[in-house]
């Protein structure tokens, strides 16, 4: 592919020495390299812009979209309780909906500033996951559990934020789409790997069909960015299990103090 032309013109015809020809070739080579560097710099800026757009899109999905799903679930529960004449329960669900809306708005503001989730500011991943599950399922007709296995290791802020968002995404799907009555989360720390298993007994889906929406795509991108592996086990009417395995390096081996 031709990207430019370099020409050398002399007023009078003459015979060039070998040194002059080599110098001209060297100058042309340097000019070509400069053009390539400019093009690579432009591509790098475009890639950086695209990466930032993808991050913002993923974070908006992880905060506003999931947060509003939680709000909708609580509002629906409030409407159901009100229809049954259970005013106290209805008020509790309305209060939870308001809290979720405020928290989601705050998380969205933090995402725009590329800051970590607020729940991780004063908690580790295990505590934040446990709190997230309790908040999202409070007053909802679903049995949700969180189990921790192994010696907990400190993780980077990026890993903790990614895993928390993954847990929120999968739980949101179970509450909103899977029609599940049970949801289990198990976080296991091994000697060389971390494993996060999220399982529901909902409607599941046919894995032979293309079934990867924005949420699942975002989970896959997060797992790949951490050098991990993601596996899905699901079938129609048999629930869904998501298994995420991440390698633990020596930087993650020390226990919490």
Q: What would your notes on this structure say?
A:
- This protein is an alpha+beta fold and 257 residues long.
- The chain has a domain at 124-257: Heat Shock Protein 90 (2-Layer Sandwich).
- The protein contains five helices and five strands, in the order αααβαββαββ.
- It has helices at residues 18-83, 87-112, 125-137, 157-176, 214-225, and strands spanning 143-149, 182-189, 193-200, 229-234, 240-247.
- The chain has a five-stranded mixed beta sheet, with helices on one face.
- A hairpin with a 5-residue loop joins β4 (229-234) and β5.
- α1 runs antiparallel to α2, α3 (125-137) packs parallel to α4 (157-176) and α4 runs antiparallel to α5.
- The radius of gyration is 27 Å and the shape is elongated.
- The model is unreliable at 252-257 (pLDDT under 50).
Task: List the main descriptive attributes of the protein structure presented here.
257 residues; alpha+beta; Heat Shock Protein 90; 5-stranded mixed beta sheet; 5 helices; 5 strands; 53% helix; 14% strand; elongated
Outline the biggest β-sheet: 5 strands, mixed
* Number of strand segments: 5
CATH topology call of the domain at 124-257: Heat Shock Protein 90
- What oligomeric state do the depicted chains represent? single chain
Rounded to the nearest angstrom, the radius of gyration is: 27 Å
Give helix and strand order, one letter per element, not per position.
HHHEHEEHEE
Low-confidence stretches: 252-257
What is the top-level CATH class of the domain at 124-257?
Answer: Alpha Beta
**Helix segment count?**
5
> Strand pairing plus helix content: what structural class?
alpha+beta
């Amino acid at each position: 592919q031709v990207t430019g032309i370099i020409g050398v013109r002399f007023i009078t015809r003459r015979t060039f020495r070998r040194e002059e020809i080599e110098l001209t070739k060297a100058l042309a080579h340097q000019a070509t390299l400069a053009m390539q560097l400019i093009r690579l710099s432009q591509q790098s800026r475009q890639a950086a812009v695209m990466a930032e757009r993808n991050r913002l899109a993923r974070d908006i999905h992880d905060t506003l979209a999931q947060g509003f799903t939680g709000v909708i679930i609580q509002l629906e529960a409030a409407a159901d309780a009100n229809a049954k004449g259970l005013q106290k329960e209805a008020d509790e669900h309305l209060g939870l909906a308001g809290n979720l809306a405020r928290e989601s708005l705050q998380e969205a503001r933090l995402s725009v500033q590329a800051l970590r989730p607020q729940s991780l500011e004063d908690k580790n991943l295990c505590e934040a996951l446990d709190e997230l599950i309790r908040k999202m399922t409070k007053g909802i007709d679903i049995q949700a559990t969180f189990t921790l296995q192994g010696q907990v290791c400190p993780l980077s802020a990026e890993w903790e934020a990614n895993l928390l968002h993954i847990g929120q995404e999968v739980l949101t799907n179970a509450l909103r789409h899977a029609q599940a009555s049970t949801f289990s989360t198990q976080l296991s720390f091994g000697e060389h790997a971390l494993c996060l298993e999220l399982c529901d007994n909902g409607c599941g889906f046919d894995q032979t069909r293309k079934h990867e929406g924005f949420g699942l795509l975002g989970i896959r991108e997060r797992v790949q960015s951490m050098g991990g592996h993601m596996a899905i086990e699901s079938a129609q009417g048999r629930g869904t299990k998501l298994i995420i395995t991440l390698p633990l390096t020596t930087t993650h081996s020390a226990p919490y103090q």
